[in-house]
Every structure is written in structure tokens, then in C-alpha cells.
Amino acid sequence: MTTPPPQRPVPKPTQRVVVTSPRTRAPRARRPYSGTREINEQSELGAVYMRTLIRAQRRLGLSVCLVACGALGLLPLLFSIEPELGKFRILGLGLPWFLLCVATFPMLLLAGWFYVRQAERSEREFAELVERP
Amino acid sequence: MTSGYAIVAVLVVALGTILVGTYGLRVSRTTSDFYVASRTVSPWWNASAIGGEYLSAASFVGIAGLIFAYGPDMLWFPVGYTAGYLVLLTMVAAPLRRSGAYTLPDFAEARFRSRGVRAVASILALAIGWLYLLPQLEGAGLTLNTVTGAPDWLGALVVTVVVTVNVMSGGMRSITFVQAFQYWLKLTAITVPIVFLIIAWQVHGSESLTKPEFPTFRQDTEVSFHNQTMIHAEQSIFIKGTGEIDGTHIENTGLVLTDGNHRIGQGSEFTFPQGAPVPHVSTMAHNTNAMWALPESSGQQFPLYGAYSLIIATFLGTMGLPHVIVRFYTNPNGTAARRTTLIVLGLLSVFYLMPPMYGALGRIYTPELLMTGQTDAVVLVLPTRMIEGIGGQLLGALVAGGAFAAFLSTSSGLVVSLAGVLSQDVLRLGGVRGFRISTVLAGIVPLAMTFVSTGMPVADMVGLAFAVAASSLCPLLMLGIWSTRITKVGAIAGMLAGGVPALTAGLVTMFTDTGDAWYEVLLSRPAAWTVPLGFTVMYVVSLLTQRHVPPGVQRTMVKLHAPENLGLDGSGPSSSDERS
Q: How far is A22 from chain B (nearest CA, A)?
């Protein structure tokens, strides 16, 4: 909000104040703005817009996937190289049992939640970009 | 463990499923209602429905049985079944919904504008679906046999009839209600008993699950052998009863079972003494409970390859299962599809905490299943074994009802999606009538297959379906969604290069005895080599045939990836229509 605070009717000399309409993102009638039109008309610029979105989403998806699944995927190798790890105990459970029965599921959920948040954010940013007149 | 309560529970589940389905019939009227519930299902309903559909016989009884028999290596099944949804969420959920197609072949055609790609995808979807239905029906047979002593084919028949009638009358709308109801039923049916079982275990003195001894009989146990079985005894045991051992028939007398391997005849009934170490099926690893609890204890050749192959198949196979994919079209938009998948991830995480506990308790309380080989029954037998009297029987009935719900819901989902593929691509019959004819066909084929199949383990076949999906439809989805370079030729070549070897390898393991051959694991767990093969062939062939990139691929990409509310459809200059 860049508008000056509203004047209270205290000062004597009456003043005229220019009030500009604040720019809000409140609902307004959607019309195809230039970004959307670029994409719909298959222009070069439109293709660039789309490529940016797809790349961002692909990178996000792949990195969440690789971090979560990669971490899990290391476990068999780890247990194979160092069998003694299997005898280690946490909370009364053997390490493989603790990791695979208990720890994995919250980790997967967290990764999924993070992905959904980021993906929706990048779609919002894309929407702002293409709807800009 | 024949129990009147269990029969009642199975009947209640079957009737309840039909009733809920009939309710759905009143609200489903148009063709669109039939296929995708008019796309008006909320994320929570949809997620419960996906959960209900996904938790199959393999999840409800199979996982516990495998962990009970083979130890922590098998924990990769529940982990993989869940992680598959993370891969699905991050790589395909939203674009798949935005593609706006009804079935996987629809997606293939929308993306590649080619009847050829569509035909290959249809055949693979049918193959995967039928492969997945077969173990559901066999699992139903096993459950009904365990709780009532009914012949094996009866359970398969009951499931087929209930599912076919239900899908035919209500279509997917009713199935969404049915499936959502089934998830919560299954979660209750597996959680409530395990709470009581753990209390019972504590009351019995919380005996260690990982003692450095072989599992022993807790009391004198009478065991009946339904099939001829090769067992291995760790030490000599004095047994009594009637039956056949190593070709010698004995009638109600005692006998010393020496250590080593023995062949027990079909229909034998022997009583094993309290405290004796339990003999086990000769193909299982000879493990004490302490060894069983360690990784790589399953006695499999090349355990590391096996583990990675299983991981690849389950992580990537989930997205290629036809009944899972069809659910995504019932989301109103891509964002809802993502949220639905996240909820599914949560629902599955809760459910999969339970089966390993059944498996571990089974080592103490139902060790004789290691000897009869019916390890899949551990979930069904534990409640009546651990808790005396009516309490145990009621819990047993709850578990049996839940298991039956598992067969019904997964089979329903599969039949719906297979009927969709059949009516559109094979029979080419439109409308509600075509869907109904296809439903009957989708149900009858696997039922017929159960009569000729050779009774292979439930989990093996499910694993095979995942491997085929991961090697063929997964590359199609992943590369089709994220790369503009994939061509029709590449898509077809990749699906065949991955899918055909995976399918062949699986069928060979199922129908022939490869025994201890070094390549056995390559055939029984094919994913680790067929999945890279499918991806590589699809990408390389596409690069070689760049002139055949489907027309309008950019527009397709806009449709797959742009949020729906922007009025972007990439369909040309005239698209200023904002109503959506």
C-alpha cells in the first residue's frame, strides 16, 4: 500500500489529496493478457514461457524424487557393505526395522508435502508472469 | 480355524459392498458418470478411494506373510508400495490429470496422436491388469479356505461375481464410494486386532522376538498339510498322527522325525510336541529368530540385486498400474490431483505400519505356518491363536472381513479400468451397454485363469505386475510428460523393449521350474534390467526418428503442464473462452 494515510479533518486549510487506486490482486474479470495470448498463439515467447515452467517443475520433481528415493536406495548397499549395522538397535528395534518400518514413512510424507508446496508456488508465479498485461 | 464369526464377517463385507454400490446406482446416469464419476470427487474421498483400491491382497495378507517367512528384506514391499506414490506425485500426478483422458490408452493417444501407440498401451494395460487380478482371486480363495475350509475356487468365484455385478450396475461413481469405505474398513480391520495382539503379547511376558534360537512350538500343535510338502527339521522330533512321511504311511501312531529333509504327503495330520523347534519348508533359509531379524537373511541368491530390482519395480511400477491411473481423472484439476496423491501417501503410511508387526509376532505364535508353507495366512490365524475364546474369534472375523474387503476393492478397481480399456479399444462398443459387456469379460478371463494357474505365491505375481508396469508404461508416462522429443516409433519400441522381456521373464518363472539356476533371480525379479532397457530404447529410438515427432507436441505440453485456471489450452488464437 503506497497511498498516504487518509487525512483527518483537523488541519485548517482544506487540501486536495490525490488518491490512487491501490493495486490489488483481488478478483477481477480475467481476460487473456499478453502472456496467455503469446502461449495460445504459439509464439516464440509463449514457447519460452512454457519451457521455463516445464523445466522448473521437472527439476523440482526430479530432485525431490532423487533425494527421497536415493536416500532409501542407499540402505541395501549400506547393509550389504557393513552387516554389523543390522545389529545396531534404536528404540528396541533393529536398525533396518526402525529405518524401514518407522522412519521412512514420515520422510516420504515430508518430501511429498514439500513438493506440493513448491509446485503450487511455481504455478502461482507462472500465473502471475503470464497474466501480467 | 473354521469360525462362524469369520463367515459372517465375509458375508457382511460382500453384502455391504453391494449395498453401497446400489446406492451409487441412483446417482450415476450418464456415460460420463460411469467412467469417471463426472469428475466431482473431493480430494479426501478420492484419496480414500485410491487407498482402498490400492491396498490389495498383497498388502493385507501378503506382506505380513513374506516378512514372517523371510525377514526385513521384505520390508521393501511396503516401503516401495508407498514410495511409488511419491514418484507418482512428483512426476505424473498433475500432468496426467491435465491430459484430460479417461484411461491410459487415452493418454497415449492424446500425447502421441497415434492409434499405434494407443494399441500397444492398451494391450499392456490389459496384461498388467489381468496379472494383478489373478493373485487377488487366488488370495480370496486362500482366505475363504483358511477361515471356512471351503474349496479354493469358491473364494475366487464369490469375488468375481460381487465385483462384476457391482461394477456393472453402478460404474465408477459407486465404486468411488465403495472404495473409500473399503479403505477405512481395511485400516480398522488391521489396526484394532494388532492393538489387542500387542497387549496379549505384553501380558504373555513380552517374549523377545529375536532370540538366538529356532522358532519353537508354544504348545502341542496339530498341523494339517493341504499339499505335499518338503520340510526340513533342525533336530529329531517325536510326532504323532496319521499321514505319509517319505512314502511310508502311518496310522495314528508316533514316529521320530529325524533331522534333515522329509516329504510329507498331502492330507497328513500330525501333532508336534511343545518346545520342539519348528521344521520349515525346505526352500526357506534355516534361520534362528536372531538371524531372521537381520538384513539379507532371506537366503536368496544375489540379495543385493534382488533388493534393488524390487525397489525399482515398486517405486516406478505404481504409476503404470491401470486401476491407479484411472483414479486421477476423477480429480477436478491438476492441483487437486497433487493434493489427493499427498493424502494417499499419508493413508498408506498409516496402514503399512501394521503388517510387519503381524509378521514378527507370527515367529512366536504361529511358527507352524513356516512348515506348511501357508505363510500368507499369518494375519488370519494370529488373532484366534493369541487370544482365547470369543474375543480372539471376533478379532479373527474382523481380519477375515478386512482381507475380503481387500480382494473386493482391488478387483473392483481393476475391473473398472480393464472394462474401460476393453470397451474403448478392443470391443469398440460405446455407451453403457458396451461398458457392461466389457465388465463381464474383464472379470471372467482371470477367473478362468485361476483354474489353469499352478498356484504360485500371491506376492510374486503382484511383483511381476509391478515389474511389467515399471518397464513399459512408466517410461511412456515419464518420458511422454517431460520430454518433447519422444516420437511414436520411440514410444512403441520402448514399451515393447521393456514390457515384453519383463512379461516373458515373469511367465517363465511362474510356469516353469528354474530352480537354483544362476539366472533365476534375473527372471523372478526382472525390473533392474528391463526398466533401464525400456527407458533407453524409448529415448534412443526417439532421437533417431526425430522426423516423426507428433504434430502439435507444444500444444500438448501446454495442456499437460499449464494450470487450468489461466485459460491456456494452446489450441490457437481463438481461445479466449474463460468458462471452465
A: 23
Say whether B262 sits in a helix, a strand or coil. Answer: strand
**Pairing assessment for the beta strands A93-94 and A89-90 based on DSSP bridges:** antiparallel
Closest-CA residue of chain A to B294: A86
Q: Where are the domains of chain A?
A: 35-131
B74, B63 Cβ separation under 8 angstroms: yes
Cα–Cα distance, B312 to B474 (Å, whole number) = 11
The 10s digit of each residue's pLDDT in B84-97 is 999 999 999 889 88
Contact B29, B183 (CB under 8 A): no
pTM: 0.85
pLDDT tens-digit map of B202-211: 888 777 777 7
Of B504, B486, B506, B493, nearest to B533 by C-alpha is: B493
Choose, out of A54, A55, A77, A120, the residue to mutate when testing the contact with B (most B CBs < 10 Å): A54
> What whole-number distance in Å separates Cα of residue B243 and Cα of residue B240?
10
Nearest-angstrom CA–CA distance, B104 and B125: 8
For B338, the closest of A58, A106, A116 (CB atoms) is: A116
In A, minimum Cα distance to B571 occurs at A40
Distance CA A54, CA A47 (A): 10
The predicted complex's ipTM stands at 0.85
Tell me the per-residue pLDDT of A84-118, one tens digit each, with 9 for 90 and over.
777 777 776 778 888 888 889 999 999 999 999 99
**Joined grid coordinates for residue B245:** 512321511
Give Cα B447 to chain centroid, integer Å: 17
Alpha helices in B453-552 (DSSP H): 458-482, 488-511, 520-524, 527-544
- Give burial (CB, 10 Å; 0-12/13-18/19+) of A41: middle
Cell readout for B233 is 527339521
